[in-house]
Amino acid sequence: MAKPADIGSKRLIGLNPDRWVEWVTQMPDLQYIGMESTSFEWVSRQTDVLLRVRSPQQGEFLVVNELQLYYNAQMPRRMQAYAALAEEKYQLPVYPVLVNLLKPDGKQPIPTRYESEFGGLKALREYKVINLWEIEVQTVLNPPIRPLIPFVPLLKDGNQELVVQEAVRILRADGQLQDFETLLGFFANFVLDTNLVKQILRWDMSVLEASPLYRELLEQARKTVLQQGIEQGIEQERRKTVENLMRLRFQTIDSELEEIVPKLVALPTEEVFSLMLQKSRQELLEQFSDRN
């Protein structure tokens, strides 16, 4: 049975930091030196990973890694602030990288820089953006980039049964990666039928519900809902959130799914999130459709 796991980016990247920095920077001959503290005097950043590396061409520098489950419009400002803090504390050049895990709803562009101008003064900070849904899955599987294996279902062409099976095989053959099987199972539920995921992983959803990852993501969803004002009874915003969860889970909303949206809107947000994660499309229709 799979063990509970959290999304701990520091622990995951720490499994293979050399391969990670090579992948995010695409720079040759990098030497990984160590992982630095991400706690600063004014701010503590639990989701960032700060790696010290050395390059024959660039010398010693820092790779600032930010992994985001959902893209946030505040990310350009955040990347600027964190890169500047790291640069000031360690007195080294920085190479900031933003890795987005889940594709956002809509077609809004994801910036690759922070820009501001005030009183005739300009500020600019560029950073690299990696969107997992644009990365070819075979570049991660062959040869394996270990920190990315749990995210295989989110990669381009990663939503194939045989591909997910291969990722599970790699995880189970690696003693250090085995703990991240729950993480892979969570993301597989966004791209494959829930029952198929259960068959591939050979465990039921109670394993996922018991994991710190599930509780963390549930809490993140709740906070997002509060920020949008949904808990204050704004029905239009509640509907938008339900529809976004449907698109994330099923890629699209057809007429049958559209029909059950009002019933889901009436439920508590935590329950909707849990249903979207645990139920297949057919199970949702059987439970909420008036046709059944």
Question: Could you explain the architecture of this structure?
Answer:
This is Transposase. The protein is of the alpha/beta class and 292 residues long. It has 13 helices and 7 strands. It has helices at residues 9-14, 17-25, 75-90, 138-141, 161-173, 181-188, 194-201, 205-209, 212-227, 235-250, 255-265, 269-278, 281-288, and strands spanning 31-36, 48-55, 59-70, 94-102, 113-118, 121-126, 128-131. A 5-stranded mixed beta sheet has the order 1-2-3-4-7, with helices on both faces. α9 (212-227) crosses α12 (269-278), α10 (235-250) crosses α11 (255-265) and α10 (235-250) packs parallel to α12 (269-278). The protein is globular, with a radius of gyration of 20 Å. Residues 1-6 and 229-233 have low confidence and may be disordered.
In short:
By secondary structure, this protein is α/β, with parallel strands linked by helices. The protein has helices spanning 9-14, 17-25, 75-90, 138-141, 161-173, 181-188, 194-201, 205-209, 212-227, 235-250, 255-265, 269-278, 281-288; strands at residues 31-36, 48-55, 59-70, 94-102, 113-118, 121-126, 128-131.
Key features of this structure:
292 residues, alpha/beta, two-stranded antiparallel ribbon, 13 helices, 45% helix, globular
Uncertain runs with pLDDT below 50, 5 residues or more? 1-6, 229-233
Shape call? globular
Beta-strand share of residues: 15-25%
What gap, in angstroms, lies between the N and C termini?
A: 35 Å
Fraction of residues in helix:
40-55%
Specify the structural class.
alpha/beta
By DSSP (H or I, 4+ residues per run), the number of helices equals 13
- Mean pLDDT over all positions: 81
The number of strands is 7
Rg result: 20 Å
Largest sheet: 5 strands, mixed
SSE sequence, one letter per element: HHEEEHEEEEHHHHHHHHHH
Strand order, main sheet: write it out.
1-2-3-4-7
